[in-house]
TrEMBL record, chain B:
Residues 15-369 form the Aminotransferase class V domain. Keywords: Aminotransferase, Iron, Iron-sulfur, Metal-binding, Pyridoxal phosphate, Transferase. Belongs to the class-V pyridoxal-phosphate-dependent aminotransferase family. NifS/IscS subfamily. Its cofactor is pyridoxal 5'-phosphate. It comes from the Bacteria. This is Aminotransferase class V-fold PLP-dependent enzyme. It catalyses: (sulfur carrier)-H + L-cysteine = (sulfur carrier)-SH + L-alanine. PANTHER family: CYSTEINE DESULFURASE (PTHR11601:SF34), CYSTEINE DESULFURYLASE FAMILY MEMBER (PTHR11601).
């Protein structure tokens, strides 16, 4: 949740998220570890965004969702152009 | 022998990286040592030593041809598997450049094919089009057909994937390619599975079947429109250039022949061991995905990806415990680029481990590996702060 408690929308109509994880500068597999460690911080049905330059995240966030039975919503970009991957917690 | 950490060296039975390099087959060692003395001369010369070398070279070519079910004059020895791939792909493209300069290839080809395509694009104004694969790494035949609705100079498809072991259905590829010549990169499968006819050019690499490094095999089908992409000379083979490595070619041929003689026994044994690894890894390592086709696969190779783990850390930790494996993950490599194979399959690209059995790997070796692996993965996860 951001400071105002509202869902954050990515720029350019990219999927919104209830919590955003800043994984800029992190190398694989750290962004996915952050995702796994923080998915419990949103309620079931809410979503979480991973912002990461790590090129492996593009494959690994959707793969994590498949393996952990969570929903991969899609990819957008953060304000600074860094890729932003959105996940919805299903369980 | 010990390595830097004092653990047993990985040259023995803990060596599980045959897909990178199979140890030299005893038959190859014997042939190599003999030919070093008898096959050193220039096979072009008309004197006795030259004739000896020529005889050994012709013999090596004949043995490889017979093993692969092709004509002697369809076989060329190159300086590596990569060189054979480059010659095969580029020669077909040159041969059909008037029709099209476009290379269509599967998205999971070896980097040698991709490099040939890049070079072709840069130097000859060609284009390349990758065709996608499914979750197991199998070429989407429908997508290949769609890609070939426009003319292409050549189609490049591997017989089996070097990272995950999945076999391609070459007959379907040949049928889908129609008139477009097909190049098959058979490096991962030669000596292990048959290469079905239908290709115009193909390539293999001797150190993958227990021959010495530095010997590639280029196959060009009689009558195929293949044009040498690089300079040639007037030596023994019009497709390649340079002084022939006669002893190595003979050793490669001896290894291939020996491999084929023991293939059925080896295939059955390795398949059973790989099945055991696939089952046990899935059962004993949490959050792991075994990747690649479970049935249509190479006999000796299995790949899995562990969530939250740096593949290079697994390789290093296993090496400390006496096991040599490979990883398609490059978390700490300078490029940071994940494996294009795993990416194209849509599977996890980090925490990747490839285990490939040599002809000497025993059930005990596999058992020891399976006992060590879960602890290694757990330790790396704990260190990385996985909750």
């Amino acid at each position: 949740m951001n400071a105002s408690g509202e869902a954050r929308h990515g720029p350019g109509g990219t999927p919104p998220a209830d919590l955003e994880l800043d994984c800029r500068g992190m190398r694989c597999p750290l962004p996915v570890i952050r995702l796994a460690n923080n998915i419990g911080d949103v309620a079931v049905g809410q979503s979480l965004a991973v912002v990461a330059e790590d090129p492996a995240a593009r494959s690994d966030v959707p793969a994590w969702c498949r393996m952990r039975e969570q929903e991969y919503v899609g990819e957008g970009v953060a304000e600074d152009g860094v890729p932003r991957y959105v996940v919805r917690r299903l369980r | 022998m010990t390595n830097s950490t004092g653990a047993p060296a990985t040259g023995g039975h803990g060596y599980l990286d045959a897909a990178s390099a199979e140890p030299l087959h005893p038959a190859a060692r014997e042939a190599l040592l003999a030919a070093l003395d008898t096959g050193f001369a220039d096979p072009l010369r008309l004197h006795g030593r030259g004739r000896d070398a020529r005889l050994l070279l012709d013999n090596a070519r004949a043995v490889v041809a017979s093993c692969l079910g092709v004509r002697d004059d369809e076989v060329s020895f190159t300086s590596s598997g990569t060189a054979a791939v480059h010659l095969g792909v580029l020669g077909l493209l040159r041969g059909r450049a008037r029709v099209s300069t476009r290379l269509v290839h599967s998205a999971v080809e070896h980097s040698a094919v991709l490099a040939a395509g890049d070079w072709w694009t840069r130097e000859h104004g060609g284009t390349t089009d990758p065709v996608g694969v499914d979750r197991h790494g199998r070429l989407a035949v429908g997508a290949l057909a769609a890609a070939l609705e426009r003319p292409a100079g050549a189609v490049a498809v591997q017989s089996a994937n070097h990272e995950v072991g999945t076999l391609q259905s070459l007959e379907e590829v040949y049928a889908g390619a129609g008139d477009t010549p097909v190049f098959v990169d058979a490096a991962a499968s030669t000596g292990r599975t048959d290469l079905p006819p239908g290709w115009s050019a193909a390539a293999a690499s001797a150190h993958k079947w227990g021959g010495p490094a530095g010997v590639g095999v280029l196959l060009v089908r009689k009558g195929a429109r293949w044009r040498a992409p690089f300079p040639t000379d007037d030596r023994t083979d019009p497709r390649v250039s340079g002084f022939e490595n006669v002893p190595a070619a003979l050793a490669a041929a001896a290894a291939l022949q020996a491999r084929l003689a023991e293939r059925d026994e080896l295939d059955a044994r390795q398949r059973a061991l790989v099945d055991r690894i696939r089952d046990r890894v899935a059962a004993t390592v949490p959050d792991v995905e075994v990747v690649g086709d479970p049935a249509a696969r190479l006999p000796h190779l299995v790949t899995f990806s562990c969530l939250y783990v740096d593949g290079e850390a697994v390789v290093t930790e296993l090496d400390r415990r006496g096991f040599a494996v490979a990883s398609g993950s490059a978390c700490t490599a300078s490029t940071l680029a994940p494996s294009h194979v795993l990416e194209a399959m849509g599977v996890l690209t980090h925490g990747n481990v490839r285990v490939s059995l040599t002809r000497d790997t025993t059930a005990d070796d596999v058992e020891r590996f399976l006992e060590v692996l879960p602890g290694v993965v757990a330790e790396i996860r704990a260190r990385a702060g996985v909750r």
